[in-house]
């Protein structure tokens, strides 16, 4: 149930809101395009670093030199990913990294509303044609889901599905292998770690369909690529991937 404006103003007087990253009292909040206030101060949001061209049009990796045009990167030319295209809104660093960390590991699930709104706003502008028939969050293994209590990718994907008016399917793509966290593993180890981790419950659901995968962060892209491999093996027509952030120092 949404609080009325007057009740929210009263609560803000009794319990002054603080920035979810630095805990500074919020005298005013930045807004996104949809007019939704963000639970971050202006200083922290100013540190959110958007990914800007030149980028690889396939995996979304940014190039260090801004003097060149966007073009496929060497890795995608050498071995094209199973997904058709991947995009991210921000680089995974600074105060955005802290916000995502607070969502995933700090139990600050309320941040999913603000971060999900940012991601859905980006997805509406970024998603190519054809519009996907299904939006699927990258799933967690049931053991990790019990440990964490929620899947942050599902929380974010709900906002994307609502904004795109596309059906959200969080049951068909399943994680069947409990894997080590990708962070801290070498590149080859990450690929081996995630191989065979996913399956499609009913392949006929995705046959000839366009799927949009949603996750919070792309590091090497191995997790998204493995999900896409399984979807393409089940005869999905197109697989696009969108994330809130992308690591650029891997």
Beta-strand percent range: 5-15%
Show unreliable segments.
none
Give the strand line-up of the largest sheet. Answer: 1-7-6-2-3
Roughly how many Å is the radius of gyration?
Answer: 18 Å
**Number of separate structural domains:** 2
The end-to-end span amounts to 42 Å
Helix content: 25-40%
Number of helices: 9
- The secondary-structure element order is HHHEHHEHHEEHEEHE
CATH fold annotation of the largest domain: Rossmann fold
What is the number of E strands? 7
What general form does the structure show?
globular
The largest sheet, given as strand count, sense and whether it forms a barrel, is: 5 strands, parallel
Structural class: alpha/beta
Mean pLDDT, nearest integer? Answer: 89
| Second-tier CATH architecture of the largest domain | 3-Layer(aba) Sandwich
**Top CATH class of the largest domain:** Alpha Beta
Question: Can you describe what's shown?
Answer:
- There is one protein chain.
- The protein has 250 residues and is of the alpha/beta class.
- It has 2 domains: 1-46, no CATH class; 49-246, Rossmann fold, CATH 3.40.50.2020.
- 35% of the residues lie in helices and 15% in strands.
- The chain has 9 helices and 7 strands, in the order αααβααβααββαββαβ.
- The chain has helices at 5-14, 42-46, 74-78, 94-105, 111-126, 142-148, 152-164, 187-194, 222-233; strands at residues 85-91, 134-137, 167-168, 173-175, 198-200, 210-218, 238-246.
- A 5-stranded parallel β-sheet has the order 1-7-6-2-3, sandwiched between helices. The protein has a two-stranded antiparallel sheet with strand order 4-5.
- Helix 9 (222-233) links the parallel strand 6 (210-218) and strand 7 (238-246).
- It starts with a helix and ends with a strand.
- The model has no long low-confidence stretch (mean pLDDT 89).
């Amino acid at each position: 149930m949404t609080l009325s404006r007057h009740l929210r103003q009263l609560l803000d007087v009794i319990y002054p809101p603080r920035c979810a990253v630095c805990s500074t009292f919020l005298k005013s909040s930045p807004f996104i395009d949809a007019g939704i206030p963000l639970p971050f101060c202006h200083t922290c949001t100013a540190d959110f670093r958007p990914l800007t061209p030149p980028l690889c049009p396939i995996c979304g990796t940014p190039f260090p030199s801004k003097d060149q045009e966007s073009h496929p990167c060497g890795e995608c030319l050498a071995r094209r990913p199973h997904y058709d295209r991947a995009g991210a809104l921000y680089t995974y660093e600074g105060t955005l990294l802290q916000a995502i960390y607070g969502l995933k590991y700090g139990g600050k699930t309320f941040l999913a509303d603000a971060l999900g709104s940012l991601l859905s706003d980006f997805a509406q502008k970024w998603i190519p044609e054809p519009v996907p028939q299904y939006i699927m969050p990258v799933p967690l293994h049931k053991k990790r889901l019990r440990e964490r209590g929620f899947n942050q990718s599902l929380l974010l994907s709900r906002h994307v599905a609502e904004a795109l008016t596309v059906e959200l399917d969080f049951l068909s793509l399943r994680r069947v292998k409990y894997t080590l966290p990708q962070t801290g593993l070498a590149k080859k180890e990450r690929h081996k770690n995630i191989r065979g981790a996913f399956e499609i419950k009913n392949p006929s659901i995705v046959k000839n369909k366009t799927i949009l995968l949603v996750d919070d962060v792309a590091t090497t892209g191995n997790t998204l690529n493995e999900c896409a491999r399984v979807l393409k093996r089940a005869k999905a027509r197109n697989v696009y991937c969108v994330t809130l952030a992308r690591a650029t120092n891997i």
